[in-house]
Amino acid sequence: MILRFVVGWLLAFVVILLRWSCRIRLQDDPRPVLRKEKTAYAYAILHGHQLGAILAAEAGTVAMVSRSADGDLLVPSLRVRGVKAVRGSTRVLGRDKGGSQALAMLIDHVRNGAPGYFAVDGPRGPRGEVGLGIAKLARATGAAVILAIPVPCRRWILTRAWDRFQIPKPFTRIDVYFTPPLLCGPNEDVEVFRARVQESLIALERQHDAREADLGVEAAARQRAKLLCRNGNRK
């Protein structure tokens, strides 16, 4: 626990250095219009893009972070960027690890005007497979969902990680690409909206980072195959 605490704050220090050295360039940012219209909004990003997203984070954002070792390491980095974390994980083997409570807290924050933040394919993937949380939030709050893809000009990629986690290199430029906001219709099923978010997020990455999008699809396919094999062995 102490080691995790120390490593988490060392990573936060790295985030401070990267934010100081990297240049952020926003492309097709819809937020000025949403703010002018006083429309609530929440960000949807891929788990592997979290570091780039944190570097570009908007102070006052509230993020849902899993109750996992990875989540413990992430919280200090969010804190130094002015982002509040609510902790909870998705259901695992029928056990709710605080996910429902964390989602309820995030919904309250968004209703009160704070931007929300979801790594929509976390905490376990497969990469690019969007969970229902962002759709439930959009339905409950009426918030617009903003899909964002940070693309560093120079980066390291953890190719063995399920999410192909990206680390921007110091002194690089990070282009952050947005989609037009997505709204969940009053009669739209949350699963239908979830699928829309997933399709749009995949298309956004394919448009602006095609090679990585293709490699991400391959990584997701390998993970699904492993899960099928593991589940088959349990029977």
Shape: globular
Number of helices: 8
Biggest pleated-sheet summary:
7 strands, mixed
Structural class computed from helices and strand pairing? alpha/beta
Cα-to-Cα separation, first versus last residue: 35 Å
User: Can you count the beta strands?
Assistant: 9
Rg, alpha carbons: 17 Å
Determine the mean pLDDT. Answer: 93
Main sheet: strand order: 1-9-6-2-5-3-4
Helix content: 40-55%
Unreliable spans: none
What quaternary form is this? single chain
Q: What is the H/E string?
A: HEHEHEHEHEHEEEEHH
Count of the separate structural domains: 1
Q: How large is the share of residues in beta strands? A: 15-25%
Describe the structure.
The protein is an alpha/beta fold. 47% of the residues lie in helices and 18% in strands. The model has no long low-confidence stretch (mean pLDDT 93). It is globular.
Question: Can you tag this structure with a few keywords?
Answer:
single chain; 235 residues; alpha/beta; two-stranded antiparallel sheet; globular
Write the layout of secondary structure elements.
Blueprint: H1 2-21, E1 23-27, H2 31-36, E2 41-45, H3 50-55, E3 62-65, H4 69-80, E4 84-87, H5 99-111, E5 116-119, H6 133-141, E6 144-152, E7 155-157, E8 166-168, E9 173-178, H7 190-208, H8 210-234
Parallel strand pairs: 1-9, 2-5, 2-6, 3-4, 3-5
Antiparallel strand pairs: 6-9, 7-8
Helix pairs in contact: 1-4, 5-6, 6-7, 7-8
